[in-house]
Amino acid sequence: MVNADGVGGALPGDALSRPVALRDDATVQARAWPDARLLRVNGAGQVRLIDGQLLLESAADYCSQPPTHAVLLGVVGTVHQWAVRDEFLTEAPTESVGIEFGDLRSHGALLESVDAERYLTAQALLMWQDESHFCAKDGAPMTITSGGWTRVCTACGREEYPRTDPAIICLVHDGADRVLLARHAAWPARNFSTLAGFVEAGESLESCVAREIAEEVGLVVSDVAYVGSQPWPFPRSLMLGFHAVADPREPLIFSDGEICEAVWCSRAEVKEALAAGDWASSVDAPVLLPGKVSIARRMLEAWVRTAS
């Protein structure tokens, strides 16, 4: 989605239809399998790409019907789209000439909209499948149903569904011409971004923004406003973007240990940093910002375009 500020999910995806009824219709799934496309994902969460786009293979080349551990991503046109871990394919995978392996961080900015949605959905579902073999209530094994979208306990019948973890990401500015950029303690020098954190149980999104900013840099924020969202499969988050206003005269306090450095930058300085490239660049710039795959960059680009 894109809002009035021009900030939307960096990886939009509305070309992949998700008919819920199809997930429970094994007859239709089997009938469509010979023409279905299959996205193979390895244990590291990497997919195969050719010329920067996802390699979608003929499902029938690997098995005669949907494997138990495959997940039905949806439908593009009339063609069913599936994904599966390499390890669950009975036939030895064959690799095409010119293939490369990549993930969202390395190739996400190059993916077309529908390919991005395929990858994001596959990664989220397969990672959930990897971690939900047993019932959280009684520890009994879970079976896979609904095209990979549901697990059912073999003992008590309890159903479990894929989980999405909400996280906020916030562009903190002074209400005029300066924005706060921060560096996580684990990041290389010069790599800066906006502030982010996970939403806690029982917490509103706005309260999360205020708490995370206070914990990470010691600032009190106001005028919290939602600007857009982006699915982020590390492991299965939904990034919810916000703007908020803080006073640059207040001291920066890194109390929780996550942030080790933060700087207030002018609109001109942010524009220069955006033009310099991103974290993958080797240019000698004082500040490097996230790549195009990140909603953080989209928020910063929109803020630079907005007159103070």
Task: Describe it.
This protein is 20% helix and 28% strand. A hairpin with a 4-residue loop joins strand 14 and strand 15. The longest helix is centred in the middle third of the chain and has 18 residues, at 113-130. It has 3 domains: 20-131, Nucleoside Triphosphate Pyrophosphohydrolase (Alpha-Beta Complex), CATH 3.90.79; 132-163; 165-305, Nucleoside Triphosphate Pyrophosphohydrolase. The protein has helices at 26-32, 104-107, 113-130, 205-217, 267-276, 295-305; strands at residues 37-41, 47-50, 53-54, 57-58, 71-76, 79-85, 100-102, 142-145, 150-153, 159-160, 165-173, 178-184, 195-198, 222-232, 237-245, 259-266. It has a 4-stranded mixed beta sheet, covered by helices on one side. Strands 13-11-15-14 form a 4-stranded mixed beta sheet, sandwiched between helices. It has a 3-stranded antiparallel beta sheet with strand order 3-2-7. By secondary structure, it is an alpha+beta fold. This is NAD(+) diphosphatase. Its EC number is 3.6.1.22.
